Amino acid sequence: MAESAFRRVLPAIGLFFLAPFISEYLLGDFPLTKLGYLMILAPLYGGGALLIREIVRRTGKGWPTILTLAFAYAVLEEAFTTQTLFNPNYLRLNLHLLDPAYISALGIGGWWTVFVLTLHTVWSISTSIALVEACVPARATTPWLRWPGLALDSVLFALAVIASTRFQVKHDGFVATTMQFVVSGIVVVVAIIAAFLLPVRRAGTGSDPAPSPWLFGAVALIAGSLFLIVPRAWAWYAVAIYLALDLTVIFIVAAMSCRSGWAGSHRLALAAGAALAYGWHAFLQTPVDGTTGITVRASNAACLLIVLALIAYAARRQVRYAA
């Protein structure tokens, strides 16, 4: 009985820890020598991803709802818990995040706003969910947690949001304006409401066949790579490229997912391409603590190998499920 219960919640545990792993370690913000941070990051990233996934699957909604709720999560984290959308010198790191394409009337940087919200929406939440669901294709659209588990995850996520906010205020001292908080809150609420008003699209019902999953993997890898390498010095041009990439991928996936044959392998391909873009780009990153050297690059390689192994495992599960 205990083993059966553990197997039932194993995907949920996997998502709880995979989301922060992709968000911070695969991205290259932290090397694996700082793996202990995962326990601190998991309730925020993993708790949020798991909460979104479970609510969507319990309500019978689909991927448009997941993506919209992921956007709401992104605004919540960056506007309230870290306040990087408004802080001109986050944690006094002299990153100058708001300088490119600065919008003085809103007190935000156009470049950083679009960049970081896309990172969380696409990678932190959506890619993490898609990879874990691909590993359990028979349970990809069913809840993984019962009500006590969902309640526990909700509490952990709420506590993580509070703790992260307190940490930021204590170590930085910056507090956004009341109007910035109000507008951000409205955006979060509107996104949540819109997420559940979106219709459920039945994938794979069209007459035309969907292209090979390999094509979608390539599209995700190329689009994700282009997104990550656009120089922030391009300011508004970078913002335009980001939005063009976001909208193009959304349009392509929305159009192709209606075709016959669209399946879990296509969603896996999209998630794999996005994850691999993070993985190779990490070799160009410097961790947030400024450390460099062979240890950091060895960590990047290890993270990439871990994700490749996860993708290979998920691909095998998809093949067996389709057989």
Oligomer class? single chain
Q: Report the principal-axis shape.
A: globular
Percent helix range: 55-70%
Largest sheet: spatial strand order: 1-2
Number of helices: 10
- The stretches of 5 or more residues where confidence is low (pLDDT under 50) are none
Derived structural class: mainly alpha
Distance between the termini: 29 Å
Write structural notes for this entry.
The chain has helices at residues 2-26, 38-59, 63-81, 110-135, 147-172, 178-197, 213-229, 236-256, 264-281, 294-322; strands at residues 102-103, 108-109. The mean pLDDT is 95. It has one domain (2-322). Helix 3 (63-81) crosses helix 4, helix 4 packs across helix 10 and helix 7 (213-229) runs parallel beside helix 9. Strand 1 (102-103) and strand 2 (108-109) form a beta hairpin. The longest helix has 29 residues, at 294-322. The protein is mostly helical and 323 residues long. Strands 1-2 form a two-stranded antiparallel ribbon.
In short:
The chain has one domain (2-322). The chain contains ten helices and two strands; from the N terminus they run H-H-H-E-E-H-H-H-H-H-H-H.
Which features does this protein show?
mainly alpha; two-stranded antiparallel sheet; 10 helices; 323 residues
What is the topological layout?
Elements lengths: L1 H25 L11 H22 L3 H19 L20 E2 L4 E2 H26 L11 H26 L5 H20 L15 H17 L6 H21 L7 H18 L12 H29 L1
Antiparallel strand pairs: 1-2
Helix pairs in contact: 1-2, 1-4, 2-3, 2-4, 2-5, 3-4, 3-6, 4-8, 4-9, 4-10, 7-8, 7-9, 9-10
